[in-house]
Design goal:
about 375 residues; mainly alpha; three-stranded mixed sheet; 3 strands; about 0% strand
């Protein structure tokens, strides 16, 4: 609380100094300064009290990829193509696993969880991104921005967790095949899925509350294609050290744990594969593991690049950073159905069977029409 007599004394002294410089009557100057400063002090003192309850929530403006605005329409073509492939591929995987009872195994159940995660993750970012590129629809409300931010960060953590779960499944299947069905029962798979989902929600929900609690009095322009935590808090006109520290700590701990555990699983897998007496079995195992490792490398390479850019890469141009961040959200959902699905024999056979049945039915219809 500011003491009014003290304020008056300060401005009385300051008014005397101005009187010597400007030759304005002292009493007039002193009264004006005290009146003006009193109004300003009242506004400053009252602002924090009302900001928590009545502070307006500003809409944000997503500008896309800074520096590449003239070519964003062309950039949208591969992004849109990847999104369509991701939708078709992941929905196909889910439908096949649902109808084919022989695929109700640990690997395919984890794959279905990964497909659901990919669908939600890509859909939370890409439609808005394309609307920016095509229609210049840059506005996004404060709450919609928070929801998008939560979905992107939490489901990215879930995707990382499901990669680890699938690596663990492959480790048990190859290194301890006799106990695979006993270790990874359906209840156990369900519990692993719940833990992965709960972890993503638990650790990334606080980000929304941290963003909501900050005041925004500078610009409302986010130089990005989607609402990303670090991009939003840069707009705050308050100390954001705690918020940044929390976000970077959570992301680094979850990412490091999942990556190291996944790498360790594949090291044990490769060691077991090299000991297999049959060259054909070794080749198949290498082929399967190699394709899985490629997807994981794409996911974690782009994730680590994005993380290090926020922490150390202040000299990296925004267009490179944001393009990699978009690849980070688009490429894994596009590749996962191809790598984990098409290269898996059971799924491939089922897809071929469905296509063959459709072709056969079409031929029968054509034959019946010709007869008529």
């Amino acid at each position: 609380m500011v003491d009014a007599p003290v304020c008056q004394k300060v401005f009385h002294v300051f008014g005397s100094e101005l009187h010597l410089i400007t030759k304005t009557p002292f009493k007039e100057l002193s009264d004006e300064l005290v009146s003006c400063a009193g109004n300003q002090l009242n506004e400053c003192v009252r602002a924090p009290k009302s900001s928590s309850s009545t502070r307006p929530e500003p809409p944000f403006i997503l500008i896309g990829i800074p520096g590449l605005e003239p070519v964003q329409w062309w950039i949208s073509i591969p992004f849109c193509s990847m999104y369509i492939l991701a939708l078709l591929g992941n929905w196909t995987i889910l439908c096949i696993i649902k109808v084919e009872h022989s695929l109700h195994e640990p690997m395919f159940l984890f794959l279905s969880m990964l497909s659901i995660t990919d669908l939600i993750l890509s859909t939370s970012a890409v439609p808005k991104m394309l609307s920016i590129f095509w229609f210049n629809s840059q506005d996004i409300s404060f709450n919609a921005c928070l929801v998008q931010m939560f979905f992107i960060h939490s489901f990215t953590a879930m995707e990382s967790g499901f990669f680890l779960a699938m690596a663990f499944d492959r480790y048990v299947a190859i290194c301890n095949p006799l106990r695979h069905s006993a270790i990874l029962t359906n209840p156990t798979i369900g519990k692993i899925g719940i833990v992965v989902v709960f972890r993503g929600i638990l650790f990334f929900s606080p980000q929304a509350f941290l963003v909501k609690s900050l005041p925004y009095c500078h610009t409302n322009v986010i130089p990005h294609t989607y609402c990303e935590f670090m991009a939003i808090i840069k707009l705050a006109c308050a100390d954001t050290y705690t918020s940044k520290a929390y976000s970077l700590t959570v992301a680094s701990l979850i990412g490091a744990f999942d990556l190291l555990s996944t790498v360790l699983s594949y090291i044990f897998i490769l060691r077991s594969v090299l000991r297999l007496p049959s060259k054909e079995a070794s080749r198949k195992a290498f082929s399967t593991c190699g394709s899985h490792i490629c997807v994981i490398l794409v996911f974690y390479t782009t994730a680590v690049f994005t993380f290090l850019t926020h922490r150390f890469g202040h000299n990296i141009s925004p267009e490179i950073h944001i393009t990699v961040a978009n690849i980070y959200l688009l490429v894994p959902p596009t590749l996962n159905p191809i790598i984990y699905g098409v290269r898996t024999k059971k799924i491939r056979q089922r897809v071929v069977k469905i296509l063959y049945q459709k072709k056969k039915l079409k031929m029968i219809d054509i034959h019946s029409i010709n007869k008529e």
